[in-house]
Amino acid sequence: MLEVGTKAPAFSLPDQNGTIHTLEEYRGKKVILYFYPKDNTPGCTKQACGFGERYPQFLEKDAVVIGVSKDSVSSHKKFEEKYALPFVLLSDPELTMLKAYDVWKEKKLYGKLSLGIVRTTYLIDEQGVIVKAFDKVKAADNPAQMLDLLSEV
Fold first, then answer.
1. What are the residues facing 105 on neighbouring strands?
2. Cα-Cα-Cα-Cα dihedral of 50, 124, 27, 126, to 10°?
3. Which of 54, 67, 98, 138 is the most buried (most CB within 10 A)?
4. Who's near 121: CB < 8 A, 6+ residues apart?
5. CB 50 within 8 A of CB 42
6. pLDDT digits (tens, 9 = 90+) for 95-149
7. How far is residue 69 CA from its own chain's centroid?
8. Is there a catalytic annotation at residue 49?
9. Residue 107 has what pLDDT?
10. Which of 32, 30, 11, 31 is nearest to 91 (CA)?
11. Where would I find the beta strands (DSSP E) of the chain?
12. Which secondary structure element, helix H or strand E, spans residue 143, and what is its range?
C-alpha cells in the first residue's frame, strides 16, 4: 500500500466507455480511488452499488469516485449498465495502475497462494496527494466510511 502524504501515481486508462482518464484531469477535486477484484461478484457489487447510491453526496463534497479492476472495458460496461453505476470504472488488464498503487499482491484463499487485487481505497486530495489509505477494505462498509471521512477532511 502506498504511504499517506505521497503523490499519487499518474495514470492513463480507459473507462467503461473506452474514454481515457488521467489523474491530472481530476486536479482540484478529491478523488476516491477504489480497487476491487472483479465485476459482478457479491462483494464488489455491494461496494459499487454503495458508492452509486451515495454518489450525489460525494459530488456535493466536491469528490469523485473511480473504481479500478483488471476487468475489460466491455465487462465494466455490462457492470455499469446492470447496476446503473454513475461513476468511472477504469480497466487495467495490463496491471500498470494496479502495480503502481501497490494493490496487486500475493493472496491466500483456502490455503492456496495466488496473485490478485487486494481491495484497497485511497483518498487523494485536490493536489494529487494521498491523504488516506485503507487496505483489506470491507466492501459493504467502504462507501459509507469514505463519505464519513470526507466530512472530516
1. 116
2. 110
3. 67
4. 32, 33, 34, 35, 133, 134, 137, 142, 146
5. no
6. 999 999 999 998 887 888 889 999 999 999 999 999 999 998 999 999 999 999 9
7. 8
8. no
9. 84
10. 11
11. 12-14, 20-22, 30-35, 63-69, 88-91, 104-109, 112-117, 120-124, 130-135
12. helix 142-152
Find the catalytic residue in 13, 31, 44, 103. 44
State the CB neighbour count (10 A cutoff) for residue 68.
24
Question: Kind and range of the H or E element at 75?
Answer: helix 73-83
* Chain centroid offset of residue 1 CA: 13
Q: What is the DSSP string of 79-108?
A: HHHHHT--SEEEE-TT-HHHHHTT-EEEEE
> How far is 63 from 57, CA to CA, in rounded Å?
9
Q: Reduced to 3 states, what is the DSSP secondary structure of residue 7?
A: strand
Q: pTM for the whole thing? A: 0.95
Cell triple for 55 = 454518489
Total count of residues recorded for the chain: 153
